[in-house]
Amino acid sequence: MNYHEKLDFDNIPKHVGIIMDGNGRWAKNRKKPRTFGHKEGTERVIEIVEAAYKINVKSLTLYAFSTENWKRPEEEISKLMDLLAFYIKSQLEKIKKNNIRIMVLGDYTAFPEKIVGLIDTALQETKSNDKMILNIGLNYGGQSEIVRASKKICEEVIAGNISIDDINTESFKDYLYTRGQNDLDLLIRPSGEFRVSNFLLYQLAYSEFYFSDILWPDFHENEFYKAICDFQSRNRRYGGL
Ligand code: FPP
Fold it and tell me: Which helix (H) or strand (E) holds 81?
C-alpha cells in the first residue's frame, strides 16, 4: 500500500522522534559485522529526513547515540562517529538548500575533536533555517537532560534572574535542548522493542507511540508514512474526554 496517498495533510505531527534501532540485528541476519547495519541505517537517516521534510514535519528528532552507547566496543563507536561525519559532509549542502536547521541534543563535546568541529559548522551554518529542525541525539539521555535543565534553572534563581514562582511545566521547557519546539507528537520505535530507552522523557508526556517489527535499515519512506497514518487514526485527548 502507498501510505503517502493516505496522508491527511491537515494533521501532520509537528514533532516526530525516532529511536533508530535494529542495525546490529539487520547485519547479523546477513552474516555481516554490526557496523554494516549502521552504514545502511545512515542511508535510512538520509531517506527519512527527506520524507519528513516533504510532508512538512516541523521537528524530526533522531536518536543516534545515547549516553549508554559508550559501553559498546571502541571499534563500533568509532564507526558510528565516521558515519556521523559522513552524514554531515555529504548532506550539509542539501540541508542548507532545503532550509533545515540542525540541532544537537546532548553533550557532543565529549566526541572526538574532528567531529565536534564538523558539528559546530553544521549548527552554525544552519542556525537561521526555519523550514524544519533536525534534532540529532548525540551523547543524549533524557534523565541527564532534565537534571541539566534543573541545574540551569537553579543558576538563574541564584543569580536573581527568575524567582521560584516562575518555574512551571511550560517555562521548564526553555531549559531543555528542544527549547522553542513543540512537545513530541509521535514516537516511532522500529525493531520490535517496546522501550523508551531514556529518549525525550519530558517531551513525550502526551506523545503517541508507534512500534514496528521492521528493523531500522529496512524502515523506508513508506514505513514512515505508515506510522504517520497510524498517528492520524488516534484520538488524542490530552487527559480530557
Ligand atoms: C541502534 O541499533 C542504532 C544505533 C545505536 C545507532 C544509530 C546510528 C545510525 C543509524 C547512524 C549514524 C547516525 C546519523 C544521524 C547519521 P543497534 O545497534 O542497537 O541494533 P541491535 O539492537 O539490532 O543490536
Answer: helix 74-97
Please tell me the distance from the alpha carbon of residue 35 to that of residue 33, in angstroms, as a whole number. 5
Closest CA to 80 of 152, 149, 137, 15: 137
Q: What is the mean pLDDT of residues 36-56?
A: 98
Tens of pLDDT, residue by residue over 145-193, are 999 999 999 999 999 999 999 999 999 999 999 999 999 999 999 999 9
Question: Ligand 1, residues 18, 19, 20, 86: which to mutate, most atoms within 8 A of Cβ?
Answer: 20
Three cell numbers written together for 230: 497510524
d(CA 176, CA 171): 10
How remote is the CA of residue 69 from the centroid of ligand 1, in Å? 10
Cβ atoms of 63 and 19 within 8 Å: the answer is yes
**Of 205, 51, 190, nearest to 134 (Cα)?**
51
Question: At a CB cut-off of 8 Å and minimum separation 6, what does 219 contact?
Answer: 20, 44, 48, 190, 212
**CB-based contacts of 94, cutoff 8 Å, min separation 6:** none
**Is there an atom of ligand 1 within 6 Å of 18 CB?**
no
Residue 169: how many CB atoms within 10 A of its CB?
A: 8
Q: Which of 21, 135, 185, 198 is catalytic?
A: 21
**pTM of the predicted protein model:** 0.97
Provide the 10 A C-beta neighbour count for residue 220. Answer: 15
User: How far, CA to CA in Å, does 73 sit from each of 23, 77, 118?
Assistant: 15, 6, 23
In degrees and rounded to multiples of 5, residue 157 shows phi and psi of: -65, -45
Instruction: Give the integer Cα–Cα distance in Å for 57 and 59.
Output: 6
